[in-house]
């Protein structure tokens, strides 16, 4: 069974319907809200599989279905659905991971009093993400994009009674909004330049050769191609959403939301949206690549931003103590990898890593959620420990996820996708700096993940809560097992044959990977693992307050990294200060200049009123009083005609009618 | 949910409807004139007069004492005692009428009768074309043999008969004691 | 054709006149139902069958019921039904006003030169009517709908008793 | 009506052929009135007989439902001992009714007392004119037939009111007022349940509505309105409202014998009583006939291969099964109280019918959906029906606990 | 006099009967019914003109009457509710007694 493209809207519509049901359900209807949400996701998953079958029938074709949304008079705003392997794989991933996260939430949020609201928001989130994926129009994509932002705001601030959660929600919303401004500008510019926002429209879409050529050949005064400028503006949006280097600050703070939300944001939906956007408009990004006389290429910027983000995220993750925060920075780092891959020209590798990362990062977050749930919301890994015994399923699945993320060779899907990225970076002919950044990040990733597992699961429990932890019910562990299985099985997408790459981009020729590079990366991973084990696994800390061995060795660097490279402080000192100054200036202007003017006018009015009143009291009022006395006396006489006798009125009406007709007839008035 | 009760009720009537065709035991009625429900022994309505021998009128137990006539609440009994040529009252009813249309089957006549001469019947099909002729029963219609009484109320009749024979025996004993000086010849012949 | 019209006219006018002069309210109301049926017959005569059935449904079916209900609800004994005769002055005034109007109208009708165009009635199917109603006249339909709704609510509010004595399901 | 019978079996064409044969004896100018008179006579004969045997069927069915055999004794005159399962009971009843004394209370309004039974039968008979009994078997095929039907049906209650008022009896008057309240309450859901049919069929003519439900050639599932979500709900509402309109149990408050003696019938006896009785059954026949026409495909056979059975037989089967269903309901349900009756109408049936109108609108807008969307269409339509039903039903029954008895155990 | 004029005369007669009834009767219900009759007379006119004088749109007269009937039904409902309210207020429905609001 296949799903034809004009019915593609059903995939986002189903979770949206579930969200509506959840919104309309009173807080008592937990079963209804949850079952609607999960049923909608399962149905969307089935539909996505049908869509995948349809898309794989001809991987090169971009199946589209466009329709007019409204008519502007001079032109029409058109929307549409797009079905190609990229869309289909994303749909399958989002709905599959989403379903598991929903099921997990059943257990995790079981005791929360706002259960129905939570599922409503989750469904909205999933619907918005699926809307991004199936859209064939940058406009609809933008609308869904903003809906994702809204839903993330609602979910991060789900426990809004906690001030940190409220602040984190606000931070996420405002930070991503900065990037979205770039996206909006890019979109408007694109519309101005091309008159359409459809990606594919039978030759007229913005991603099709005619449009790309037109955008590329025109240049700006500073020498940039128009396509480069638009691409970079749109890239701003992706930077904000995917937590890339300058705007990554919201992502770790988003951990204040419930853990399933973190999993959903970091694995399947929100951060993937940025990478997906860039992969979707890759033809546009790439348009300027073969023009060598341009000062800068869009993809180069992307590659460097990605490389910086990858390294920075990995570095900060080393010095964090909160489980979810470590995972958050690892997400930042992995997203940097994906951007790097796109930047070096292999968007296929990026999407491959996006898919594998979705699974094992969801696994890691849900595992972390399982740990946190079991340990009564204790998130500091210094206070945990010794959980491998009581929480065997969680431990084993978490270990699988950790090894996939660290890139342990051959068996785990993370290895293959990371290899694909490193190979692409190696093959890039502009610069090898991203490759070195990436390799460094590989070492660090293996290192901090080893630390995380060692601190959390080995040794003895270092707090009362950790001591009491026990395994969670099946509704939480079964999704973990499924995800762990997927984290391993997804290797089959790339090995023994690069099947996924072929499906996504049949033209791409994948050169046989350099064996030496693979060996190098295996060695680096082993190095990271070994270092982590040496520092943390071998010398287990005995109590929560014992100092970190790394902090003991490099205290200043460790403090700097633990403070997340002081980004928040930096932003507060620069942008915050600047905006405070501007606000003070505006306040002063308002208070004294405009306020003074208004006050002056008011005083004038007051004075005028005073004069007017004096004139009124003596001159006009007397006259009016006399007139109204007369009117009253006349009214009293007239009111005697109102007898209250309905018959009388009716009679007069009848007589009046007769007189009128007689007048008309006798007077000959026609 | 709304409506389930209605469906359950419909099922019940449908079951009865279908069942009444297949399961004759379900039917609560019988086809009356052809089939009759056996009447319980203690069923009673309308009084009748008990007689002993073959001649109904001659062997009535009734002695025309008129106690029942006096006690009857709806006053449906009319008795005239028989007199001989001299006008002396004989202990026999000349007229014994009961207006069945008026009788309310209260059994008071039976309770008060000292001679066990009037008893309750079980015959209820008394419809008639004329209420003056058909429903005013005379002694000829009222008289029924003791064997009939034994048939319809066996237990009760046995008790009555035992009592009567015991009484007769006692009376006979008294009489034989008295009969030494003067044997009574006027006493009616003992009942069969 | 004209004979049928005159028959219908006699039915309408006769029953109406009798209804308006009877003392018994119930008889008046029932005679008015007859008169409304006569009007429906007039519509049928003129070829407007949809309107005729609507007239029967609305007047004989609904308005008459409300009228009868109102009559029965606003009396305290059976004697109330035969109402006191109108005072002579009022009756004369009423009939005079009515007569004057009638005279004027008759004059007006007779003196106007009215043309008759078609010999056969214009045919309007129900479907045409429906399309007309939801097409060009849709605003009016909506307004009438609002009027009816408001009238229903208003009637309920007006007729509802303020007192709330007795629970509905008291045991 | 004068269209030639198409190529159907002889049995199918028989009624029309017989009529044409009889008309053939008359001159051209007289043919129309003679044809109309023939139709009237045929209807009176057929439905008179149907009425007679329906009374027997009702008594038999009620008896069986209460584990009794029902009337089974009446035989034939001069043949003593014949019983014929009591089939001659209606005629015995008729003889009894006709020979009974006709009593008119002294204080009654004599004219109205006489007019009421006449009018009630007349109005009930008028509704028969527009029902299509079979292919080309309709007395008057008018464009606004459905409207005509309800207009004539509404006037019946007027006659009931006249009967109640003219009797000069308080029970009669209360019965009459109840009849009025009931009519006003249930006219609305009745009409609202029909509106979707008119909307979807696009016509007010009963014959065209039946044609709109014609079979798909070779199809097995009947293409009747009742097999759509809105049609099922509309049919249910129609049946409930029809029970109320026909003053049938459980809505027989106007003649609730346990409290009102016999309601508006209290002061009637003999032939006039029989006329009321007849009107009740005629009303039932008319309403079920219209119900079958609107929702059950009228005279259409359920599937194409069953079309060899004449259409009027199909109509009869549908109508009779609906009437038997009404009798079954009567054997089952208890009479409602007046406040429960009006509450059911205004708080349950009317909202449901209005929502059903929306469902029907949705259904007609999504006529082109096919494939997987067909399931979506059904799901949405069913949700539109089930959710309000459950919600309104809950509201209606809220606070009603199972019945408790104070004096009985 | 042609048929149209005859129709108009009938309707004006109906109108005047309604008017005279409304003026001379004291029972509020009858007054309301008189007004109802006047509305009906107007409807007769619409149909008469529709029948004998072609309008540009064939359904105009009929649609007028349909709306008039709908509005008349609403008027009857409200009017009779008012009658009941008056009855509750003054225990009778004589129109000449309902003069509470006179000036």
Task: For the structure shown, list the relevant keywords.
heteropentamer; A: 670 residues; two-stranded antiparallel ribbon; 71% helix; E: 103 residues; mainly alpha; Helix Hairpins
State the CATH topology of the largest domain in chain C.
Answer: Four Helix Bundle (Hemerythrin (Met), subunit A)
Radius of gyration of chain C: 21 Å
| Through-space gap between termini of chain C | 64 Å
> Helical element count of chain C?
6
Percent helix of chain C: over 70%
* H and E order of chain C: HHHHHH
Number of helical regions of chain A: 26
Largest interface, Cβ cutoff 8 Å: C-E, 85 and 72 residues
* Rg result of chain A: 33 Å
How many domains would you count in the coordinates of chain C?
Answer: 3
Amino-to-carboxy terminus distance of chain A: 78 Å
Described by the principal axes of the CA atoms, the overall outline of chain C is globular
- CATH class annotation of the largest domain in chain C: Mainly Alpha
Helicity level of chain A? over 70%
CATH structural architecture of the largest domain in chain C: Up-down Bundle
Oligomer: heteropentamer
Topology, pairings included?
The complex is a heteropentamer of chains A (670), B (192), C (171), D (409) and E (103).
Chain A: H1 10-24, H2 30-56, E1 63-71, E2 76-83, H3 85-108, H4 115-134, H5 138-156, H6 163-194, H7 209-217, H8 226-242, H9 250-253, H10 259-268, H11 270-280, H12 282-286, H13 298-318, H14 323-343, H15 347-374, H16 392-406, H17 413-427, H18 433-457, H19 464-468, H20 474-489, H21 499-504, H22 515-537, H23 549-553, H24 555-562, H25 567-639, H26 646-667
Antiparallel strand pairs in A: 1-2
Helix pairs in contact in A: 1-2, 1-4, 2-3, 2-4, 3-4, 3-10, 3-15, 3-20, 4-5, 5-6, 6-8, 8-11, 10-15, 11-14, 11-15, 13-14, 13-18, 14-15, 14-17, 14-18, 15-16, 15-17, 15-20, 16-18, 16-20, 18-22
Chain C: H1 2-21, H2 25-46, H3 49-73, H4 88-111, H5 126-134, H6 138-159
Helix pairs in contact in C: 1-2, 2-3
Chain D: H1 10-23, H2 31-65, H3 89-99, H4 110-126, H5 145-166, H6 170-201, H7 206-212, H8 229-245, H9 257-260, H10 270-295, H11 311-332, H12 338-365, H13 372-397
């Amino acid at each position: 069974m296949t799903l034809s493209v004009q019915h593609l809207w059903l995939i986002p519509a189903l979770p949206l319907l579930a969200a509506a049901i959840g919104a309309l359900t009173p807080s008592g209807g937990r079963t209804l809200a949850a079952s609607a949400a999960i049923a909608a996701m399962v149905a969307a998953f089935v539909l996505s599989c049908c869509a995948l079958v349809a898309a794989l029938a001809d991987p090169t074709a971009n199946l589209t279905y466009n329709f007019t949304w409204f008519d502007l008079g001079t032109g029409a705003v058109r929307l549409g659905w797009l079905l190609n392997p990229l869309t289909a794989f994303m749909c399958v991933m989002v709905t599959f991971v989403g379903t598991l996260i929903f099921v997990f939430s059943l257990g995790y949020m079981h005791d929360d009093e706002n259960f129905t609201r939570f599922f409503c928001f989750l469904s909205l989130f999933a619907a918005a993400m699926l809307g991004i994926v199936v859209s064939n129009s940058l406009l609809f994509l933008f609308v869904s994009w903003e809906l994702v932002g809204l839903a993330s705001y609602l979910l991060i601030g789900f426990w809004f009674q906690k001030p940190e959660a409220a602040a984190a929600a606000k931070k996420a919303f405002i930070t991503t909004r900065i990037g979205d401004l770039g996206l909006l500008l890019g979109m408007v510019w694109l519309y101005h330049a091309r008159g359409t926002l459809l990606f594919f429209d039978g030759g007229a879409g913005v991603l099709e050769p005619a449009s790309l050529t037109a955008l590329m050949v025109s240049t700006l005064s500073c020498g940039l191609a128009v396509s480069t400028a638009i691409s970079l503006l749109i890239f701003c949006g992706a930077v904000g959403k995917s937590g890339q280097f300058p705007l990554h600050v919201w992502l770790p703070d988003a951990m204040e939301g419930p853990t399933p939300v973190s999993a959903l944001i970091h694995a399947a939906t929100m951060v993937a949206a940025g990478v997906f956007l860039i992969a979707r408009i890759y033809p546009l990004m790439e348009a300027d690549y073969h023009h060598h006389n341009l000062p800068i290429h869009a993809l180069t910027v992307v590659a460097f931003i990605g490389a910086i983000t990858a390294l920075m995220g990995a570095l900060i993750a080393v010095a964090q103590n909160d489980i979810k925060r470590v995972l958050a920075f690892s997400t930042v780092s992995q997203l940097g990898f994906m951007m790097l891959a796109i930047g070096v020209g292999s968007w296929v590798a990026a999407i491959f890593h996006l898919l594998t990362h979705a699974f094992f990062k969801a696994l890691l977050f849900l595992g972390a959620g399982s740990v946190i749930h079991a340990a009564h919301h204790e998130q500091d890994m210094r206070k945990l420990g010794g959980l491998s015994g009581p929480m065997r399923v969680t431990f084993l699945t978490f270990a699988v996820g950790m090894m996939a993320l660290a890139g342990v060779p051959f068996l785990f899907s993370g290895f293959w996708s990371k290899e694909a990225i490193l190979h692409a970076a190696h093959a890039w002919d502009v610069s090898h700096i991203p490759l070195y950044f990436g390799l460094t990040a590989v070492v660090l990733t293996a290192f901090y993940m080893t630390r995380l597992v060692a601190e959390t699961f080995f040794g003895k429990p270092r707090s009362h809560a950790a001591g009491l932890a026990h395994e969670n019910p099946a509704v939480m562990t079964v999704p973990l097992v499924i995800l762990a299985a997927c984290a391993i099985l997804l290797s089959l997408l790339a090995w023994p044959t690069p099947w996924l790459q072929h499906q996504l981009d049949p033209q791409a020729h994948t050169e046989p990977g350099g064996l030496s590079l693979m060996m190098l990366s295996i060695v680096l991973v082993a190095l990271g693992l070994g270092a982590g084990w040496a520092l943390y696994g071998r010398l287990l800390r005995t109590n929560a307050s014992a100092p970190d061995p790394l902090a003991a060795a490099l205290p200043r660097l460790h403090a700097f990294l633990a403070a997340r490279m002081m980004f928040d402080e930096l932003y507060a000192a620069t942008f915050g200060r600047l905006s405070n100054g501007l606000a003070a200036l505006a306040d002063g202007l308002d208070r004294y200049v405009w306020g003074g003017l208004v006050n002056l006018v008011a005083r004038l009015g007051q004075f005028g009123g005073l004069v007017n009143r004096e004139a009124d009291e003596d001159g006009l009022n007397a006259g009016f009083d006399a007139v109204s006395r007369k009117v009253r006396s006349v009214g009293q006489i007239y009111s005697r005609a109102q007898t209250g006798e309905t018959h009388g009125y009716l009679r007069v009406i009848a007589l009046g009618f007769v007189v009128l007709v007689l007048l008309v007839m006798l007077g000959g008035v026609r | 949910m709304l409506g389930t009760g209605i469906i359950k009720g419909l099922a019940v009537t449908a079951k009865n409807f279908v069942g009444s065709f297949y399961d004759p035991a379900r039917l609560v009625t019988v086809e009356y004139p052809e089939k009759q429900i056996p009447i319980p022994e203690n069923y009673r309505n309308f009084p009748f007069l008990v007689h002993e021998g073959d001649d109904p009128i001659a062997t009535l137990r009734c002695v025309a004492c008129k106690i029942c006539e006096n006690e009857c609440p709806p006053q449906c009994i009319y008795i005239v005692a028989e007199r001989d040529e001299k006008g002396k009252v004989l202990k026999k009813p000349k007229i014994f009428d009961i207006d069945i249309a008026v009788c309310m089957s209260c059994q008071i006549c039976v309770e008060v009768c000292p001679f066990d001469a009037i008893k309750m019947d079980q015959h209820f099909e008394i419809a008639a074309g004329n209420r003056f002729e058909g429903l005013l029963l005379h002694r000829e219609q009222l008289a029924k043999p003791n064997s009939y009484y034994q048939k319809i109320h066996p237990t009760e009749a046995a008790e009555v008969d035992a009592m009567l024979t015991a009484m007769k025996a006692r009376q006979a004993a008294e009489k034989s004691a008295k009969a030494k000086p003067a044997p009574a010849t006027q006493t009616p012949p003992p009942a069969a | 054709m004209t004979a049928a019209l005159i028959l219908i006219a006699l039915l309408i006018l006769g029953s109406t006149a009798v209804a308006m002069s009877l003392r018994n309210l119930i008889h008046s109301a029932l005679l008015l139902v007859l008169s409304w049926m006569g009007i429906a017959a007039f519509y049928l005569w003129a070829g407007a069958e949809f309107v005729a059935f609507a007239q029967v449904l609305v007047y004989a079916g609904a308005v008459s019921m409300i009228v009868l209900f109102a009559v029965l609800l606003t009396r305290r004994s059976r004697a109330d039904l035969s109402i006191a005769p109108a005072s002579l002055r009022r009756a004369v005034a009423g009939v005079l006003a009515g007569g004057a109007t009638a005279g004027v109208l008759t004059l007006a009708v007779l003196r106007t030169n009215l043309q008759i165009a078609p010999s056969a009635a214009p045919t309007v199917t129900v479907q045409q009517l429906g399309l007309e109603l939801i097409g060009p006249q849709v605003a009016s339909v909506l307004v009438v709908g609002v009027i009816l709704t408001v009238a229903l609510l208003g009637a309920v509010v007006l007729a509802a008793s303020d007192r709330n004595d007795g629970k509905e399901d008291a045991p | 009506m004068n269209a030639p019978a198409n190529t159907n079996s002889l049995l199918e064409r028989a009624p029309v052929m017989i009529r044409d044969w009889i008309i053939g004896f008359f001159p051209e100018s007289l043919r129309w009135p003679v044809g109309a008179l023939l139709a009237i006579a045929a209807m009176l004969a057929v439905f008179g007989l149907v009425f007679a045997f329906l009374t027997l069927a009702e008594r038999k069915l009620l008896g069986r439902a209460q584990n009794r055999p029902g009337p089974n004794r009446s035989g034939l005159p001069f043949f003593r001992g014949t019983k014929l399962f009591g089939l001659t009971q209606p005629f015995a009843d008729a003889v009894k009714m006709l020979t009974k004394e006709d009593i008119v209370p002294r204080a009654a309004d004599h004219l109205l007392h006489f007019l009421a039974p006449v009018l009630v039968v007349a109005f009930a008979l008028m509704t028969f004119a527009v029902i299509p009994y079979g292919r080309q078997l309709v007395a008057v095929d008018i464009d606004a037939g459905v409207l005509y039907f309800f207009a004539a049906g509404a006037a019946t209650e007027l006659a009931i009111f006249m009967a109640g008022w003219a009797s000069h009896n308080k029970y009669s008057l209360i019965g009459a007022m109840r009849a009025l309240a009931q009519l006003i309450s249930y006219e609305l859901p009745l009409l609202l349940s029909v509106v979707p049919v008119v909307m979807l069929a696009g016509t007010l003519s009963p014959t065209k509505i039946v044609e709109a439900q014609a079979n798909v050639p070779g199809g097995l599932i009947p293409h009747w309105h009742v097999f759509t979500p809105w049609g099922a709900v509309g049919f249910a509402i129609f049946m409930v409202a029809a029970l109320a309109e026909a003053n049938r149990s459980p809505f027989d408050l106007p003649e609730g014998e346990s409290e009102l003696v016999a309601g508006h019938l209290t002061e009637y006896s003999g032939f006039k009583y029989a006329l009321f009785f007849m009107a009740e059954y005629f009303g039932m026949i008319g309403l079920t006939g219209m119900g079958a026409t609107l929702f059950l495909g009228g005279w259409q056979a359920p599937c194409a291969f069953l079309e060899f059975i004449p259409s009027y037989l199909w109509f009869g089967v549908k109508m009779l099964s609906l009437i038997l269903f009404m009798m079954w309901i009567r054997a089952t349900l208890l009479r409602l109280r007046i406040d429960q009756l009006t509450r059911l109408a205004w708080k349950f049936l009317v909202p449901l019918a209005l929502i059903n109108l929306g469902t029907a609108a949705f259904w007609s807008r999504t006529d082109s959906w096919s494939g997987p969307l067909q399931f979506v269409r059904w799901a949405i339509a069913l949700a539109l029906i089930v959710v309000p039903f459950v919600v309104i039903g809950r509201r209606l029954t809220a606070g009603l606990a199972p019945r408790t008895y104070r004096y009985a155990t | 006099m042609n048929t149209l004029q005859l129709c108009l005369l009938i309707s004006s007669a109906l109108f005047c009967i309604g008017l005279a009834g409304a003026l001379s009767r004291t029972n509020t219900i009858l007054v309301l019914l008189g007004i109802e009759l006047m509305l009906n007379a107007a409807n007769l006119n619409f149909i008469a003109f529709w029948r004998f004088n072609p309008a540009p749109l064939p359904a105009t007269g009929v649609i007028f009457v349909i709306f008039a009937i709908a509005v008349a039904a609403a008027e009857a409902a409200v009017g009779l509710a008012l009658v009941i309210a008056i009855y509750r207020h003054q225990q009778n429905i004589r129109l000449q007694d309902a003069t509470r609001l006179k000036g």
